[in-house]
Amino acid sequence: MRPVKRKSPDADALGGHLCFAVYSTGLAFNRVYKPILDRLGLTYPQYLAMVILRGEDGQTVGELGDQLFLDSSTLTPLIKRLEAAGLVTRRRDSEDERVVRVTLTDKGRAVAEEAKCVPGEVLAATGRTPEQLGVLERAIVQLRDTLRANAA
């Protein structure tokens, strides 16, 4: 009996499905990010939250959720895990106690600083130039924004 030769997904039924190309590329990115982020003790969503806070500390949970496209039921456990790791603190806003602000701790700032190496390592793994990736990112963001507007 001879072994069954499997075709690449792009060569058969899934070829021409842009959503599969984006999905499978996301999986490939996850494989690149995982060992890098494991060194920092972060998951990918935690890394993104840390990047956002490194850019502007003291954001509200709502502001973080808007930027990450996550609702509070997903974001709150993520923030609680960052807090348990000693990377962030959560505090009620002094002007509006319904609002919770998230702030990096000293340890969190150190990890966020160390995480500055991540984009360069990922860039190297892509085999593309920053300019090539910039064009691709702009096209994907434009597509995402159009899809979100049409799904609303």
TrEMBL record:
- Keywords noted in UniProt: Cytoplasm, DNA-binding, Transcription, Transcription regulation
UniProt entry tagged with the keyword NADP: no
What CDD domains does the annotation carry? HTH_ARSR (cd00090)
InterPro entries associated with the record: ArsR-like_HTH, HTH_MarR-typ, MarR/SlyA-like, Transc_reg_Sar_Rot_HTH
Which Pfam families does the record cross-reference, listed alphabetically? Staph_reg_Sar_Rot
Q: Which residues form the HTH marR-type domain?
A: 15-145
- Name of the protein: MarR family transcriptional regulator
Q: Which organism is it from?
A: Sphingomonas quercus
Taxonomic placement: Bacteria, Pseudomonadati, Pseudomonadota, Alphaproteobacteria, Sphingomonadales
